Amino acid sequence: MLTIATPRLSPAEWDDVQATLTAVADCGCGEPANAGSLRSRIGHVVDALIGPKKAAPAPLPAHLRPVRDFLCETGRTRQLAERHVPSLSAQGFSRAQIEALALLGA
Fold it and tell me: Its domain of life (predicted)?
């Protein structure tokens, strides 16, 4: 479990956090399998057996990939994914916003 206190953010900062979480909500963790790879072939077999996924996720814009990677790693490890913090900071997120993303999105 994440042990982060609820960050103090302005309403505008909370709005940015909410908009970002909404933008990456259905992206899933990781990239799709490369065509012809073992993972891709296994996916095709599973689709043939149980049916394809109802809707494939839309491609994630490049600027949201660091957010997705941060949320996926934070969720997997249940610790703040510090190695992704610099890329989020470079996008303009404050430390408090990054912590809010972790608390709400992981």
Answer: Bacteria
